[in-house]
Amino acid sequence: MDLELILISVIVFVGVFLPIYAIFRYPVPAAPPVNRRIARAMGADRATIFELPALAPVLNAVVAIANRLNLPKIRADIRQDLDASGNASGYSVEQYLALCVLSALSVAFLAGLGELWLGGGLLLVVLPLGAAGGFYVPLILLHGARNRRVIRIAKQLPYTLDLIALVMAAGSSFGEAIQTLIRDNPEDELNQELKIALSEIEFGATRATALKNLAQRIPLESLRSVIASVNQSEKLGTPMAAVLKVQADMLRAQRGVIAEKKSASASLRILVPSMMIMIAVVLIVFSPMIIRFIKGELF
User: Fold this and answer.
1) Residue ending a domain, choose from 118, 149, 180
2) Is the pLDDT of residue 28 over 50?
3) Is 291 part of any domain?
4) How many domains is the chain partitioned into structurally?
5) Contacts (Cβ under 8 Å, ≥6 apart) of 170
6) Type II secretion system protein GspF domain location, by residue (predicted)?
7) Do 23 and 145 sit in the same domain of this protein?
8) CB atoms < 10 A from the CB of 92, how many?
């Protein structure tokens, strides 16, 4: 009982001390950070909870806590997932890690309250489990968004390659072909990534470097293969339109092979449920006769 009172006192002290410390130690900045001001000037800024003045003192404290966490693997995964998911809200790695910390604290606090309401016997187990689960929930959601976007990009890739090859065959350059695609369908997620690559080229990067950065942002093996072929054709002087057309045909062929494998595995997976259904139907049909035979009433 004394241990529970000590723990409750510590939780209450931390709950009162942290907001006061955050308000006076981490004041609200007079202006947004420079990266946010640049993004806003370019029309790419997004409204997030970090721009809300009412939450800024607490969130600044959480960001400061997140910055002190030595988690290089998690930071690298967050960076990869933010890039691959499109990062529509414009979060930085530190901000998203702060969201994970905030989620961990919130879930641990709610789990602790629930356990205290139930009796508090497992408080030392519930608090760390709640914090760990709350920390990984935003990571899981971000990874799921990344996977869904990568799948959509993979489906769109062959058609985009065909369009680029078609426009280049009409006499346009690679950059002009990409600009045509972006202008016709700016909401397409692959076109958005191509727009980023085109912006890098306009800012002075080589086409090979911009495409390499695109392959790093989107963890898609087929896209990496296409980019490697494009860079190789640039070195050898091979017509790029022909290379893109061949790559599009190869991707369609690979998609057909994958579809055949999935259909073959589906036929095997459905075999067991079909047999169970058949056995259930046989039992339903013949169960009256079986019951009568057991009771000796059949003959």
Assistant:
1) 149
2) no
3) no
4) 2
5) none
6) 161-288
7) yes
8) 17
Please count the CA atoms within 13 angstroms of the CA of 88 that sit on its side-chain side. Answer: 7
Residues 98 and 45 in one domain: yes
**pLDDT digit string (tens) for 225-237?**
888 888 888 777 7
Reported pTM: 0.72
Phi, psi for residue 32 in degrees, rounded to 5: -65, 160
pLDDT digits (tens, 9 = 90+) for 253-298: 887 777 777 777 777 778 778 888 888 888 888 777 777 777 776 5
Cβ contact 231:244 at 8 Å: no
Give the pLDDT confidence score for residue 262 in this predicted structure. 75
The answer to whether the beta carbons of residues 199 and 264 sit under 8 Å apart is no
Residues 243, 78: Cα–Cα separation, whole Å: 34
- d(CA 236, CA 128) in angstroms, rounded, equals 58
Q: Is 61 exposed, middle or buried (0-12, 13-18, 19+ CB in 10 A)?
A: buried
Structure tokens at 77: 């995964």
